[in-house]
Structures are given as structure tokens and as C-alpha cells.
Fold each of these.
Amino acid sequence: MNVTGLSTSPPRRGPVRQQPSAEPASGEDDGCGDTGLREEGFLLSEIAWHQREEPFRLFVETVQDYAIFMLDPDGRIVTWNAGAERAKGYKASEIIGRHFSSFYTAEDVRAGRPQRLLDLALKEGRVEDEGWRVRKYGSQFWANVTITAVRDATGKLIGFGKVTRDLTEHQRADVALRHSEERSRLFIEAVQDYAIFMLDPEGSVITWNTGALSRGRCARRQASLGIGGSGEGRTI
């Protein structure tokens, strides 16, 4: 001790307590670094994607002339639009989750047609088909169908897009036209008083009817008897 009563030995020091640093530790991100910028960029791209996707989704849902819906890789229905409800008679709550073979006739199902179409779409990318399809209450309609395999960015199959159009009226009109043409053909072939036939653009005969045959025989008979003047009895 000195005269003042104060110790001259160095003062004791306890462990130094470090103050929290204002800078983030190595490997951490304060939200303003590269990680934060990447997350913000991803969020903005997602928002932009949904902004572009939403109008298209609304368009598909409201289309009424075409049944447009998605199938999962096994063929089960996962989306439904107004056109599908109109064409097939099912509400979304009634059909989503069911297999799309519900729309095929019993004969087509037994023949494996639904699965064969999926297999072709998977192999070729898309397949188009026409035939009878079945509505909710059993009535049938003539459909034009396109099935497209849908894959993600890595090429993995995520399902199938299916577009169906009701062509019943077109099919009926085609059948009626064929029947009309057949009746006209039979009528022309049966006519005996007139030679009715068709020529191709080069003048070759491509059709012939009973009347043409009868007049041809008559002309040959007259020629053999020396009957008929110049040009008489010719059928062409």
C-alpha cells in the first residue's frame, strides 16, 4: 500500500464481452444479398406467370363449343370446363376423379380403345380419333377427339390434354348426303329412256346407265341393218 491507501498493482480484468456485430456472419443473408435477390426474382416470375396463366385458364373454363380437360397419366379426369359439361352432361363435381373411359361405348371399352389412344398419344405426342361417345344419361354423340401428351420441362409425363368436339350434326348431314347421292345414282342407273353418263376432263366415259346401254344396242342394230342417216343413233 502507498501513502494514499491505493493499490499500485494492475487492476483485474474479467472476460471481455463482445458487442453484437451489425454485419451478418459469414454465410448468413440479411435479405439484401444474393439470396434475397434470387428469392425476390423468383417471386416476381411466379406472379408474372400466374398473371399470364389466369386469363388462359378463364378462357378454357368458359369455352362451350369444345370439351377441354386434363387427364392424369393414368387417364383420370383432373379438370373440367363448361364445354365438357355441355357436351357430356356431367358437372365437374360428378366427373373429376373418374376414368375417361366413362365416355366410351361398352364395345370400345371391351376392345381397349381408350387405353390404346393414350398409348398412341404417349408414343406419337398426340392422337386424333372420331367415333361415338356416351353422355351422362346414355345418349350418344359423334365426337372428334384429340389427345395430347403433356410433359414438364424435364420431359416427365404429367398427364394428357383432351379436346372433344360434338360433330353429331355434321355426321348426320354427311350420312344424309351419302344417302341422297346413292338414291340419285340408283335412279340414274335405272332410267331407260335417256342415256345418262359422265365423262372425265379428257372425254373418257366414266359412268354408264341402262338408257345408254339400250340406246347403244339400238344404234348398233340400226347400223347393222343400214338404218339411220348421218349422226342418227349415236349416243355420244
Amino acid sequence: MGSHSSHWIPGQYAADESVAGAQAVLLPGWQPALFYLLALDLPNRQQEAREGEDHYGVAGESRPGNRRDVAGLEVLRESVIAMIEVSVIIPAFNEEKYVGACLTSILAQTHPAYEVIVVDDGSTDQTAEIVQSFDNVTLLRQRHAGPALARNLGAEHAQGRILVFVDADQTFSPTFLEKLVQPIVEGRAIGTNSKEEYVANLDNVWARCWNINENVTLGRIIPEDYPDEMPIFRAILRSEFLKVGGYDDTGSGDDRTVSDKLGLMAQAAPGAVFYHSHPTSLKEVFYQARWKAKGQHGPKTFMKTMQHTLPWSLKGSVKRALRYRNPYFPLFLIVYDFGILIGSIEHLLRPRFHWK
């Protein structure tokens, strides 16, 4: 895990109306080297080096000194990114099956996290014990109250200038943190997410059915053509997160509430690859669908709710079962839709009780 450094401390990020175009204003506090890095416009310098657009040289060639400058700036940029303090926050409720792999991959990053905080949301399995087996991981506990309040608790204890929120059933490529925070470090965004999210367990029949039901390319969680502005922050400046009071406790969909309150979207961070596990049993399918319906992702009208009744389930499942040659999909959709129905009824009767 990364050691604490008080030398490189990001300044406050101030945003005005131009931020919608990914414009940023950096207030005092960033070190001179970072100003230098941004002022020299590294991407343009790289392009010049490739194309030989140097008025001191011959057309089509690139001066060796120019190439050395660019290489030096790349090293400087990597050093700056590596020294920014990042706090990773992981809410976990009964995640004994996944949390070990999650922590193993988040602790093996090219950009080590300043701290990793797991908030045990009242688990009744071995989640807490598994977390405690890892060195350099902070474990916080709360009574079962849902992921929004768990994330907020983690943020209250976090010391990093950038907060990264991930789930306990996710794993990450080695450069995930480095790529995710890069647009923030370079002053191009107050927060980021990634479109490069893939299904971790596509070999499981029920996880595969879940992926089919999401109507995205098999193996992906976010469509390839998804916009570069995203409504969920995977990483965000701590000052901006705290400014709006963190997440609202709305159940499924609560991770969109920070963006709603800020009036800003997360910017896509290229190269931040990670993997997310879908439900692996019909029991998990039911509980995940039930939780989904109790939050912002549930059906909003009576007619939308009726589309999850048995006749609709059978009608909708056969066509997709044939299309994807998946004979398990009809059974999956019956269980999924039953979870949606139960969750919708529970939301109607007990609207504040929306966690798993």
C-alpha cells in the first residue's frame, strides 16, 4: 500500500459553468511541476514528436531533444499520478464469496492506494473475518443500512484527496487506479468512471442469463457506444463529494445521487479495466432483482410492473432463449421477474426499507 506523502497535495478543484465541457480551474495548492506538466500539453508534444512538426528540424523528422523532452514529461506525469493520495472505499454485505479476490486485486495496483477501507454493512457471513486477514486494510462496521450509508461512512474516515468507490464483487486490472484517477490528476475532471467494465463470471449460466437480460453485448456491462459522460462517479475529489453530503439513501440507484446533486457527470477514463460478477444462482438472481425494484431502478408505473408478471415473462423469454441458444433463460426470467414484483410490492408498502 502506498505511503503517505504530504508533499504532493492536490489543491481544491473549482468548477464553473464551463465544466460541462470538461473545463477545469485549479486553485492554488498544486505543485509547480504539475503546472508545468499541464502547461506543456503533453499530448500535443507527443503528436509533434511523432509527426516531426518542429520548426527547428526537417519536415517529417523529430529533433532528438524534443523526443527526450516528451519522454521526461511522461515520467513526470507518472510520478505525479503515483503520489496523489487515493482512498478506496468498498461497501460489503455478505460478500464472503468475492471480497478476497476484490482486495487481492486492489492491493496489486501500479498506483497503490493510500488506504483501502471496507465497510461491513451488517454482514452475517464471514465477510469481516476475510477482510481482517488482509494487512493494510481498514475495516469499519455498521448495522445493516445499505451501500449508500456504508460508502458515506467510509468517506468520513478517508484521508485521501481522491475517493474511489468500488464494489466487493469486482476485480481490477493492475492499472485500474492509475488510469481511473489520471483525468482528475491532470485537472480535466472532478471525477471519473470507466466504460471498460466486463462480466467476471460469464461461464456461469445464471450470470450469462443476467447479461442477456441487460441487453448489452455479451460479456460487457456497459455498452460500447455509451457516452463519455456518465452518471455514476467511480472516482471523485473528496472535497466535491463532501460538498453535497455524499450519497442519498435511495436504494438501488443511490450511486447516481452524487452526480444529480453536483449537476455534473463523471468523465470516462480510458484504459481503466475492471470486472463485475453477476448473480450465480437463482436465489441470488431473485434477491438482486428484488433489491433493484425497491430502489430507483424499479418499475415506475402499474403497466411497467405488469410486464414482470408470469405471462409477460414467458412471452419475453422464449424469443431471447432461441436467439442466444440458452435454454435456461426462461427459468431465469421467471425468477427475475418474480423478484421485481416482490420488490415493487415491498417498495409500495415500506418505501424506506430498500436495502438488501
Amino acid sequence: MSNVISQAVRIKKILTHEGIHFDEALALFILTNFPSEKYPGAAGAKVEFLSNGGMLDKTAEEYRKEGILLVGIGGGELDEHATANREGLANECAATLVAKAVGVENDPALKTLLEYAERIDRSPTCQPFEFPTFMKEFSAVTNDSAKLWKLTRPFIEAKWYMQNEFHQCHKDVTDECFAEFGARGGKQLLMVAVKTDNPQMNKYLRAKYPNCAVVVQQNSKGNIQILTNNKYHQFLNLEQMVKVIRSGEMFHRGIPIPQDKDLSCDGRVIGADCWWYQKEAGNLFNGSLTARDVQPTQIPWKELCNVVYDNI
């Protein structure tokens, strides 16, 4: 009965320890972004950080009846740590406990984040340039947990968003998107041409189709990226493809095609300024996430796809 009563009480405050780790930050993200009947009001609840090592004068259940939810402290259902009355919970962390309590532990976009949070929480060391290390160092320097949470939250939101986008990629991929090259290096390599704004498409296609050598992606503004898998660069004629595309751009813009200029050079060339060749990576960009306002190519979509297929 008490459990039913406590779950009916609206959450007005969330308490956790100061200097939150990645698992508590992810737990807070879940509570504030995935509304649930079990914790009504958690999405808008005030978050406070305790500096007394989690020493409390009430049980987690008693706090819950007052509309206060404990995360990672207090020995309640959302605390994996050992207490005087129980051992620590194996293979759990604050984030995994919250996800299970809310019922989102199988959310595809959360699963990788949850696995990472649990692994890094029980790991004695974290690499110097991993995000959880930045969190710990920020906390050590500033001793400002509220600011740490404020800064951390949008990064977790962005990562969740990108993970979610990854799992949505299949919706934009149809059989018509695929084209096989002839055998190269003993493998049947794939080119995939797809129209989508999904920023994870290239990663999705490489993960799902290991023989995917080239991805041609056009966004809703008309900008195109040509992304290649460096595992197969030795079997691709990248410089020829870049030359023909830049020549085609000049043709469609009514610009004379120079005969004395290397149109396969790294970076940008005058007359086909909307294309940037990243030679080392083997990618050709008509705009990108760091250059969103580049003018779309004048080369029609189907023509460009044929140029890539025929010349690479």
C-alpha cells in the first residue's frame, strides 16, 4: 500500500550527490526527458546536489512520500551503491536503474548510452579525454554541480538524438538506393545513393553493409556529400571522380573549364567553389555540418549519381 501511495505523489525535487558522474547525469536526463506514471512531475522537478556524502535522516521511501526522489544516494531503488543493509547492485548504475524503473531500458537510442554508463561507472579508470573525465575535472575545478549538470545535459541530449537518428536511417533506404560495382579487390563493393537529412546515414550504411564503399547523400536543401570508406580507397578512382564532378559543376554554371588547372586538388577550386575535396579522407563535400550555407550543386541528382558510379 505504501508503495502505491508513494508512487502517486508528484515529484517536486530530485536529490543526488554533488560532482555527479556520467551515470547520474544520464539518469537525470532520462527522468527529465521520458515522462512516466511512476515518477509524475520528474520532468519539471528541481534538481539539488548534496555535499554530505549522501548521509540522510530518512529512507528513500520516506523522501519519496514527500515528493523527493533520490538518485544514486540513499540506498533506495535508484541507488546501486552498497549500504549497511545490502550489498551493491552488480552490473547496475544510477542510469540503468532509472531506465528500468521508467521502462525505457530497451529504447534503441538509449541502450548504447546505458551500456557505456554502466561500464564506465564500475571501471577504476577513465581515459583522459573521455567525456566522464571532463565532467570530473570540471567538478574538481569549479565545485559547481548545478553548472556541471546544465552544461552536461545538452551533450547527452545531442548524443541521444544522434543515436536515435541512427536507428531511424532504415526508413530512408530503399532497394533503388543500391548499386554494385564490379568486383574490386575480390569484393563486390556497393555504392548507396540516398536522399535524406539524417546525419547518421553514412555511419548506418557502413555498419549495416560492410562492403559499402561509397555513399552519396543529398539533403532537403539540395546539398550533396560523397563519402567513401577508406578501407576501399585503393580500389577507387577518387581523383577522376573529383575532376569530372568539378568539370560538370563548371559546365552547369556556364563557366569555362580550365585546361591548365588540377581539378582533383585538395580543398576548393575557383569555378566549382561549392565543392570541397577532403583528399586524405576521400570525401567530397557540397556543404557540411560546418558549412551549412554553401550553395547546392547545379548538377542534377541522377546525373551526379551516374558520374560518381561511372568514374570512381
Amino acid sequence: MHKVRTLLFTVIIAGALSACKVIYFYTPDKPWYFASYSDPYCISYFEVSLKDWIMYMAYSLSPAPEDEIFLGDHKEEIKPLLPEHGTNKWVDYVMDALQRQSERYHAEAMYLQCGDKYSLISIPASAWDTIRSLRLIDLPVTGISYEQAMGFLKYRERVMNDCKKLTSSGGRKVSYECFLPTPEQMDSLQFYKDSLNAMRCEILNYKHELCVDCPMGQKIKDHPVLKDLGKHPVYVDGFFPDYMGLYNIRGNVAEMTSVKGIAKGGSCNHYASETMPGRVQYYTKPESWLGFRVWYRLHYN
């Protein structure tokens, strides 16, 4: 497990609550990590994940819930936030599970900010076993519209600015503005020209056939999620990060820009050449290959 991932998602199994195990996805220092782009801009290391999106839905119901939330009790309220059904089988599985009635539940605690506020979400135990073992909430959220992404940015901005640990830097006050990058900003990040390493194995998730002769190839081809490399998105921490620490800045999911209808970076449904600077992925609706990443502008007071 990569060091960054260990820092971000340390899993602690704690006690029992209402006959349910509580799974804490705990962030020791900061709820989000990002890389410096050029002062005063920063970029999230990861694409927005299903875990991020679930936290967003829970927060929309109650910013600081005291009781367990079962999203199935709030179908009308969360309906505008749900990814479009039918665009990605794993996204559908998770979202359907969160709303499904069951005789036995797990309570999943997700920290929203500063390590001291969280949403406690009830999820059917049988579904949670699959979600946990396959790490499905670490997949990028897809099947969402430009408008839904903009709503998420407002939520993330509010949560960041409500967190005292994140609004103080070197004795100065700092506030965060969350936004989507311009196409030109995205192009400036995409400078690796090759899609293969020295062993002729893929180093990003673009449209291709799985290389079973590559290291781990035989193991990957039998994995329920990873076997879809080159066809569907995989984990937000998939492959190695670039020199800035950014994961999947090319490939996996094409990332929305500030210009509605224009995405950059290519995806698992695009050839390697389409992930290069200057190339554009156009969209008119939610897609299985389309996601986004949060960019930040820091304002110092």
C-alpha cells in the first residue's frame, strides 16, 4: 500500500453501535491533501471519489449529524445528487446499496472535516462486505453532470473554510476557493509523452487491452475491478503519481474544466494519444468516463 494512501485512509475497526460495526475512515492531519501548482493555486492529488461523493450527500442532509443516516429514507432529497444510473456498474452498485432496505446493517463513519465531524451512514451488511473488499468507494465518481460537480465544489469550499485547522497558516488566516481548472491549466500538467514504461506495460488507464504478461498481469485479470483496465475507471490512487504527487492526471477519467462541455486528460475510453496536451474530450451529458478533480485558490488575510 502506497504511503500516501496509508496516510489518507487509515482504517480503524471500533466497538459496536446499535449492533453494527463502525468503520472509521480517519484522516490524521488534514481531510484533503493537495499539491502546490503555482502560488496561490493547489490541486487535489486525487480525482473526486465515490467516498467523497457519499460524504457530500450525507452533508447535504445534515452538516453535523448526531444519528445514523440511512440514505434510503431521504430518496427525494438526495435524488438531485445521485449519479446517472446505468453509466457505471460499480457506481450503480454502491448507490443502490446505500438506499436498499436490509435486515442487518453496518454503520460506516466518514469524517467530513478536521477529523472531528463525520457522517454515520447505515449500509446493508452484505453490500458493505463487497464494497469494502473491492474498495469500491475508492473509485472515481462518474455519471455526474457539470452542474452536479459545481454543487460539490461549493460544498467542499464551505467545509474547508469551516475548518479552523485549515484556515490558519503560519499565523495568517487563509480561505479556500474551490474551482475547476481552465483547459489551459489542465494542459500545463500533462507533459509525460509515453504511455508505457521500460517493460512496455501501461502507466495510465487508457483504452487498450489488458497486458496479462506484465507484472501482476495474471492477478489483475482475475480481479473484479482491475480486470476492466482500459475499459472502465479504476481506483483514484491507481498507478504511480507524477512528480507533483498527482494521480491519474492522464487517463482513468477525463476531467471537467471550467468550460462546460470540455474535459481534458483522456480516460479509459480514449486512446493514449487523446490524453496529451491540446486534446479535448467533449461531452454533453454525464458519462461513464467523465469525472473531475478539485482545484483550490488560497486567499491569505
